[in-house]
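Exercise 7. Given the components listed, write out the predicted structure of the assembled complex. Treat all entries as one system.
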Amino acid sequence: VSDCAAIKKHLAAFFDGELEGPAADEVAAHLDECARCRARLEDLESIDAPLRAIDPPPVAAGEWSKCWGVIEAAIAAEPAESPSVLPVSPAARSSDQERAARLIRWLIPLAAAASIALASYSAVVLSAHESARAEAQDREVALAGLLPGGAE
Amino acid sequence: MVEDEGLIRAHRAGDRDAFPALVERYRDRIYRLCYRLTLDKEDALDLCQLTFWKAYRGLAEYDRQGALFTWLYRIASNAAIDLLRDRRRRAQGLARVERRRSAAERFRGGRDEPARPAGAAGERAEDDPARLALRKELHGEVARAVNALSPEHRATLMLRAAEGLSYREIASALDCPVGTVMSRLHVARERVREALAGYLHGYD
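Answer.
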């Protein structure tokens, strides 16, 4: 019978389904006889099970439409040229307008040069906001980190 | 149903319906992944948009081996890691604490939804107040532990434990060697295990 120390090294791979052939057979045989290693395996399941159970909140059809609308607008504005500077204000805005503006901001480093179409779209999106929310500002600061990402 | 490859070819040939069809096909999976990585619906939707926008721009040149969803996972995971990394760097003070607490609360609260059908025995177990309380407690601890992980460890753990990707697929998505996936997984699980010390069998 294999010793626990040797089996322990392969237990995670076995648990993850990454172990095959004789190595997997050896771990399985050891588990049949070793309650301690079976407990270790159960611990791995206790760690992973709550993560598998995370389900996102539902997204309403209208939310998907808005989401796609922003992508579509960006695609439609996909330019040979786009603006080097957009009139983006850090002021807070309503959620879908905020999202549209954010995506446009993400697109800045992806664009090669100026685009009147994109600027017009951003101006429309950004012109309607009056009320400020501190949360929105925080999110803008955080999301600004995506700017240098560029295309994959 | 048209296969991914067919839709990609159609997109390259200028078919304007092809890309929306791909979005429709993968948006739920990408949204779920992004939510699991951020535990925040708005962040997840933002990342979905960014992922599909980057996919749109990159699809013309897409020629990678392997499934399209792995490529999309790669874009989404990296965008989420960037977001989380930046947030870790920038977020300070009470706002950060509150945000994490609310994310953990949502996570715990989400488990109370009677979303999953269960057999009679399962329903009894679900209804057992002691079990329910323990489960909520456990999930809360896991959420806190996951939130404390580095973005890279968190993404690796979620891609494996929650999304079920193989080590090789995770390596491809995160652009790192399989050995790095294994070591990150080990570290991430150890951190979670430490957080759950009182709930597990306790064998190291």
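Discussion: The radius of gyration of chain B is 19 Å. The mean pLDDT of chain B is 81.
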